[in-house]
Amino acid sequence: MKVCIIGAGSIGGIVAVRLSHLCDLTVVLRGANLSAVTRNGIRLITKSGESKKVRVKTVESLAGLSKQDLIVLSVKAHQIKILVNDIKKIIHNKTIILTMQNGIPWWYFCKLDGPFNNYHLNSVDPKGFILSNINSDLIIGTVIYMASQTIKPGIIKSNEEEKIAFGELDGSTSERLKKICNLFTEAGFKANLKTDIRSEIWLKLWGNSSFNPVSALTHNTLLDICKSKFGKELILKMCYEIQKVGEYFGAQFSISMEERVEVAKNVGHHKTSMLQDIEYGKDIELDALLGSVIELGEIAKIQTPHLKSIYACCNLLQNKIKSTCGRLKIDI
């Protein structure tokens, strides 16, 4: 099986290490990460302290790659648009594309019965460009449950059990879905097959759309936020708004908000991906995580005042960092 991982940051890097011995693997990287991995390979440090290092084939772009059987799309949501035309050149009619982005994906309303079938969200896919250029038949949705961070280029730390939920967009349990789950199970992941991947997205979104932006603004870890009376109260208010929007669009929440906060607390002193991006001066996934929920809330006529306030603050912070080519990190 020919497999291409597009974007090997912390999540894509873990997938690369785990799959490296099971397929013909190519990893698409850039910058310092490309140089480090090409020279030294990828090193994964697990929660238990075990270290594993693998060599992988690296490229800087998709140009020149042959048709791929499996594409793991693990770049940030706002980076997908510029890759679309190159992705189209490396797919065949049975290629599987795994989308590993946080937030509401561009394909959310594909193969979904009801009045919003094939609707596109401007916050994540302006003018429906991605939707109209990537065949939704090729996509298997995923929800990633991994707390991880890039220690330095080519070195990744995994801070919890590596779990991934997989689901067809139409809710079926297809043979290809079973095949992918088996592949990732063999690779060492806890791979779960889901018949309602969208509810799984909302379950994770509870945490992503609340903890990520609050941590980015305050530079607190998950545990810090949960231990704070004011932090926890704010998170629960944001989660309430997220749940109302999700339920309007059919999401089922299998646990309570309080239980979801407890899950985050148990991860400990972990810096969210959005906080890590702020520290490195990178663009944050603001629209995929918050803008999309706010947009859906407006469609449903559901008020989301806490989400909008946090969005505004994060937008100001992101614009300042971009305009100054800066970064913001508190060294202790």
Please explain how this structure is put together:
There is one protein chain. The chain is of the alpha/beta class. The chain folds into two domains: 2-195, NAD(P)-binding Rossmann-like Domain (Rossmann fold, 3-Layer(aba) Sandwich), CATH 3.40.50.720; 199-324, N-(1-d-carboxylethyl)-l-norvaline Dehydrogenase, domain 2 (Orthogonal Bundle), CATH 1.10.1040.10. The chain has helices at 10-19, 31-40, 84-88, 129-133, 175-187, 197-218, 222-227, 229-248, 257-267, 273-280, 286-300, 305-324, and strands at 2-6, 24-28, 42-45, 51-54, 57-59, 68-73, 91-99, 139-145, 148-152, 155-158, 163-168, 190-193. It has an eight-stranded mixed sheet. A four-stranded mixed sheet has the order 4-3-10-9. Helix 6 crosses helix 11 and helix 6 packs across helix 12 (305-324).
Set down the secondary structure blueprint.
Blueprint: E1 2-6, H1 10-19, E2 24-28, H2 31-40, E3 42-45, E4 51-54, E5 57-59, E6 68-73, H3 84-88, E7 91-99, H4 129-133, E8 139-145, E9 148-152, E10 155-158, E11 163-168, H5 175-187, E12 190-193, H6 197-218, H7 222-227, H8 229-248, H9 257-267, H10 273-280, H11 286-300, H12 305-324
Parallel strand pairs: 1-2, 1-6, 2-5, 3-10, 6-7, 7-8, 11-12
Antiparallel strand pairs: 3-4, 8-11, 9-10
Helix pairs in contact: 6-8, 6-9, 6-10, 6-11, 6-12, 8-11, 11-12
